[in-house]
Amino acid sequence: MTGHAKAVLSRVAPALAGGGVLSLLRTHTIVVLVLLLIAFIVGIEVARPGTVNATWMSNMVLFAAPLGIVAAGQTLVMLTGGIDLSVASVATASAYLMATHSTQGGATAVAWGLGVGLLVGLINGVGIALLRVQPLVMTLGTGLMTEGALVVYSQKMMAMAEGPHVPQFIETIGAGKFLGGIPNDLSVWAPIAIAIVFILRRTGYGRLLYAIGDNREACQLAGIRVWQILLVNYVTCSLLAATAGLVIVGGVDAADLSLADGYLLPSVAAVIIGGTSIFGGRGGYSGTIVGALILTVLNSILTLVDAPEPVRQILYGAIILLLATAYTRLTN
Amino acid sequence: MTPAARKSPALPAPDIASETPFAARLKRAMRRHSSLFAMPALMIAALALTVFIHPQFSDFDLQSLAMGALPLAFGAAAQTAVVISGGIDLSIGSAMAVANVLAASTMENRSFGESLLLAAAVLIAGVGIGALNGLIVVLSRVPDVVATLTTGFIWGGVALLILEKPGGGAPPEFLNLGAGTLFTSWLPNGVILLVAAVAVIWIPVRRSKLGLQFYAVGSDRVAAFRSGVNVERTRFSAYIFSGLFSAVGGLALTMTTGIGAPLAGVYYTLSGLAAVVVGGVSLAGGRGGIVGPVMAAFVLTLIPTDLIFLNIDPNFGQVIQGTLIVAIVMIGGFAAMARIRK
């Protein structure tokens, strides 16, 4: 397994001034990720001098926040060896329901949005934790259900001529900045990020997520109520996706039925690039944060490339694939 | 109590004497290939339900059912090849879209003969897409889900690059291959094409060493490796068949819609996977056949049709599809648990 990787490494190693540095990089992958992020930023500055400034930086964080929030849930789920393919549908549904209930006041509207997340998360959790359906199938199914139900709902809404409307405060959170450049959505993302990093590193619940991802049977035999942990985990993931949906809709100021479609692949990619294994038990959220920033900067680089949209899409996919490959090759 | 006496209730002797050999064999076959027996039953039940709801079910309804189900059936077949060998291909919809736009953008205003040649070229392109997917999955060691989710994104870009907006076309004779009827109006060409394509592509594989290796690698990769199976080559081959079936699916999409649409594929990735699950193929790999998913494609296509007949919003179809996937997997899980307890 490592034979080929070693062969690759032995070629790369001299360029990196000896094996010591390399093994350090392998054990502290976050360093590599940050270096990569810096390389991307330097690259963009070299290609278009003057691009990188305070406004650009704050815009990057503004755009990265919703991705970071979706990827937070995805990280939690992937640490247990699962995956959630319903996050994009949940985010869209949350945003749409919030927008169509905006006339009933802000709190009610947000409650509707998060309610979708809670509901889908519960269904996912019950199916995966209690009935032991594979996460991939379960979340695929609930994703289809959510999407279908949303289409039906949107047609009812159109018939009632009560179009979706994004309230002012959601817009402020999703697109505004304060103190001369700090994006407002960071005030949503930062507490979530701090909480998740803390939970994963310092609490029993966090350790259990790693343990379940590592060996579910062993956890069961050790007397852990695995199903409770998983249930909570999938509900958290969907709630985070629903929260991200609200931030996204605030940023674009229009709720439509394909709002968050583009977030599924990046949410998985950010986690993988960030060093969390899809088989569970390894990784963490700090890597995902850098992963989300890398993907956002990558997107920004691609908008500078003077190429039609499909070409950019192909490049984006190819680079994600390269990063994921490099990562898997380096750590395995 | 002696050990033997304790054992006996747990292992009841098979009651062979009271059964005719044929009944015993039928029973065994049903247990082994449960999907082969369950799926036709489900399909007939779904058709019967449709006729019950909509008594004036005509040959025209049958034709539109075949047209709707044809691309999905190929998408399901493509997914089956990969899932049996223990992988998963989330790029099938985009690969179908590439084949679809390739066909529609080159075939417009061509003769029937030329269009057939172009179709062959599209099939080769499909094999190429599958080969690239397989190479990426095998060489990068990135898990299948992530790798094909990403390549799907890339193929989606390629499809948009070939044809920006829905358009193009194909000669009517070519469209007739999938959309018309040849013998009687009750036997759509699409069904003939489906049976022929699946038989020509899959039966030789299934009966060959490669087919056996698909199942071996899917059920236990390590065991297969230790028995001398080249695991990487087998997984790579599975992706080639996935690419080939996707290309046929893309051609079918051209035949049934008459145009190329770069975004039409998205639907087939998820619904194809749904058909695979409903068709009795285990996502854990190594179990199931191709007949189940293909028939499941018809059942899944019937759902929105029935909803229209019932005057219900056909968009509920997607909700039902999602519920069906989950329900079937749960039933499968319960059945497996019951088998273990027995």
What does this 3D model show about the protein?
The complex is a heterodimer of chains A (332) and B (342). Chain A has 332 residues and is mainly α. Helices cover 76% and strands 1% of the residues of chain A. Chain A contains 15 helices and 2 strands. Chain A has helices spanning 2-12, 19-27, 29-47, 54-79, 87-100, 106-130, 135-159, 168-175, 186-202, 204-214, 216-221, 226-252, 264-273, 285-304, 309-331, and strands at 177-178, 182-183. In chain A, strand 1 and strand 2 form a beta hairpin. Chain A is globular and about 65 Å long. Chain B is an all-alpha fold. In chain B, 75% of the residues lie in helices and 0% in strands. Chain B is built from 15 helices and no strands. Chain B has helices at residues 3-7, 21-32, 34-53, 59-84, 92-107, 112-140, 144-162, 172-179, 189-207, 209-219, 221-226, 231-257, 266-278, 291-309, 316-341. Chain B is globular and about 55 Å long. Chain A binds chain B through residues 83, 127, 131-134, 136-138, 140-149, 151-152, 155, 264-265, 268-269, 272, 278-279, 308-314, 316-318, 320-321, 324-325, 328-329, 332, and chain B through 88, 136, 139-143, 145-147, 149-151, 153-154, 156-161, 164, 270, 273-274, 277, 283-284, 313, 315-326, 329-330, 333.
Describe the structure concisely for a colleague.
By secondary structure, chain A is an all-alpha fold. Chain A has helices at 2-12, 19-27, 29-47, 54-79, 87-100, 106-130, 135-159, 168-175, 186-202, 204-214, 216-221, 226-252, 264-273, 285-304, 309-331; strands at 177-178, 182-183.
